[in-house]
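Reading a protein record of the kind used here takes only a little practice. Each token is a code from a learned vocabulary of local backbone shapes. With that in mind, consider the following protein and its fold in token form:
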Amino acid sequence: RIRRVRSPHLFPPGRTGRRRLRATALSVLISLFLMLTTESAVAAGVTLEPVKMPKLSLAGLWKWVSENPLDTPDQQGGTARGKSHHASADATSLEGAAGRKPGKGKGELPLYERKTDDPAEVRTGKAPGTAHSFDARTSRRDA
């Protein structure tokens, strides 16, 4: 009479162990991939729009089912040929409320100015040692 005993190994030798090992490795890789991509997406400020639930009516349900969730606003096409590439602060918004005039911003530090335009000449001091301080017999090349 043969009694089957469950293997104490997480990945026992044979087909079952290989199958478990593959499934575990794939799960770990997928988890790491999702962690890294969502972390970088959050850092970039990319968020998904929340799911819009339908209104509790037949017409609301029909509208919710028939609209495309990937519907994006249409972009204006054309070219900037012949137009200026500079805009004034008044022209940066339709209402003229956006943009700032050039100048010092709130909390901005003043421009750095050197204390003198003509710095004095600086010379390094004499190196320690004399003509007799180098001994070729006790020195080794360090290269």
